[in-house]
Amino acid sequence: MPSMVQNGSRNTAQSRKKKPVLKFSNQPRSAADVIARREIIKRQRESLPIASVKERLVQEVKNHDILIIVGETGSGKTTQLPQFLYNAGFCPDGKVIGITQPRRVAAVTVAKRVAEECGVELGQKVGYSIRFDDNTSSSTRIKYMTDGLLLREALLDPYLSRYSVIIVDEAHERTVHTDVLLGLLKNVQRARVKSVNDHAIVNNKKASNSITNENGKGAECTTFLKQCQRKFPPLKLIIMSASLDARLFSEYFGGARAVHVEGRQHHVDVFYTLHAETDYVDAALITIFQIHLEEGPGDILVFLTGQEEIEGVERLVQEQLLKLPEERQKLLTVPIFSSLPSEKQMRAFMPAPAGYRKVILATNIAETSVTIPGIKFVIDPGFVKARSYDPVKGMESLIIIPTSKAQALQRSGRAGREGPGKCFRLYPESEFEKLEDSTKPEIKRCNLSNVILQLKALGIDDIIGFDFLEKPSRAAIQKSLEQLFLLGALTDDCKLSDPVGHQMARLPLDPIYSKALILASQFNCLEEMLIAVSMLSVESIFYNPREKSAEAKTAKKCFASPDGDHLTLINVYRAADELLQKRRMELGTEKNEKYIKGKNEKIVRKWCKENFINSRSLKHACDIHRLFTPFVPPFFLFSLSQIRGHVEQMGLPISSCGDDTLQFRRCLAASFFLNAALKQPEGTYRALASGQVVQIHPTSVLHQSKLECVIFDELVQTNQKYIRNTTRIDYLWLTELAPHYYAMQDLAKFVAVLSSGCGLGRGVGGHEECSFYCQASQKAKV
Ligand code: CDP
Ligand code: MG
């Protein structure tokens, strides 16, 4: 690696220049432009490595029902293979080719690109479907979707009968949904073959009874078999990745055929540092400037671990820039992370103004499948923020860990999408060799309750015996089963309970949220709970940029409820809704719907900006809830993932508790009872189920409040153990509303304390909780 530029002292810049703005041209393209772009795309497609093996690949799919395809990033797998198969007649009788992606952003951007390549409108022949956003129609034949979504579709259609081909893409990411999907698809394939045989046998019998002529009988049988095969054609299953342990997958599928697509579109030179870097952020900063000052044109993509780090680097880049001569200052930073509003995310995909170099500061959101135009250089410090769930503590941790080799390859691949590129890994080559080959499968580090609920709904009762690619730990399965049992989703013999378990499985939500909705109809607050759950199901609603942190906090205060975050979120939703109602009245009935919708979208965006609300998250929440219609596209009305529709169909009465928020909070206590925390004398809280000492997260409106008892949405460990999204409750409600848990627990804790000879240690079974349980039940008796 060339020597790094010296890192000068970082004086705070006094005068900041206004950043040049990246703008999309909204002008319709001229006919000549459109033709020229088509020509470019055509040539690009023809030059992809996969183009030269098109016929062979199609033949492989024809010959094998399961195929594993491994090919370099950028070889054209994701965008081209579905088109090859479509053109080769793999969509008979309106059947669909489904391609799963682990990330929403990949499913959406790839679908857009393929629709453009096919010259069709998105949502017609080519579409995408992700949770709460379905952009497909009856004419869709190539459908990109998240792996989680396909799993849910299997609940409604266990044979996945709409699909002729399913491509599980980026399988190396090993999301929990991909892993479960693979097991399920194996079953679907077997079930389809069995159905064909069963149908053929039945029809064959009918044929022999009704037809006497021998020749006629043979012809009839063939016709029946053909009809059966048309109804249940074998499902073609393709597992695909750039960096896949082909052997593991092949063995899992009984020695399935694996093919390699040779060659990459463009070469990427990889550089390593000579020595280990003590501060990777510093090293990234130095490398950014080194590229900027020494390399030719091309944008830079830097992988960082989270919003805070990205904003920190952004600030440092601005400061360093001011120390350069004016003509060398043409470097533009563009952040991209998942909680960033989508308009801002899209800036990463826009070209830099003439003469400027763009440096994109990204989390691993930009790691797989996406193509960011202009990127020639990738800087990879080799770290990622990973989620990991501890089933015993019921706690999720977010910790920074080294990437796997597979991730490093994906990252460097982003530099060679449009031309040759360079990747700077900020660690020595010897370190690369020490990295894990692939990322630890999510199934081994996540809460399994949701997946188990879905498997149960699919009739798979023996979870421990399920054919997982890699089995999760027994303890994790048991803990999740226990949680589902406590929520009333499972019966004593571990079957899905009726109706609660079935209702919960039907909702595309975390089981606790589903339970909250079901209970809310009894507490007369389903209207409010629908809003709260919708708002909790999306990325952060509040947007808090570092440079305007004080303004953002003031804006948030306008919505804050003294009772907590759930009611605060409802206040935001209602304020936006009110704004729209008012506008609707002002616009009257003269204007057409399209006009009103367009105007409303603009107004909401402006309002969001002024109030530091993430408009994309609010839009998602609205789509989920569907009360608030300006954003909702018509096809969404038929989306399988829309929760208001589900609860209506379940016959749950939707009513509002109005100003009586007590009912709403009691309902939260009744459903989130596993997530309750009690204040301790020194000011911290103790999560009752696990005994963890926690603090209310600084983003909560209850941060620094002195409330006795709260419920929370999640327990996360970053630098501290935090509970997020909290609401005030009365602890006596716990024994009243969840006696099956708190009474049981009470007893268990007493036994633990007594048997320890009054050791009264801290942690689970420690004396603080015991005194609480004792006190709570005594009060409850009074
Ligand atoms: O899946 P794989 O990494 O093999 O490649 P792909 O996603 O099919 O992309 C193949 C090529 O299409 C990329 O190298 C880009 O040149 C182009 N592409 C693009 O320009 N814009 C997109 N949104 C997706 C792909
Ligand atoms: Mg791909």
UniProtKB/TrEMBL annotation:
Residues 58-262 form the Helicase ATP-binding domain. It comes from Salix dunnii. Its EC number is 3.6.4.13. The keyword Hydrolase applies. GO terms for molecular function: ATP binding; ATP hydrolysis activity; double-stranded RNA binding; RNA helicase activity. Coiled coil: none annotated. Residues 1-23 are annotated as: Disordered. Keywords: ATP-binding, Helicase, Hydrolase, mRNA processing, mRNA splicing, Nucleotide-binding, Spliceosome. It catalyses: ATP + H2O = ADP + phosphate + H(+). This is RNA helicase. Signal peptide: none annotated.
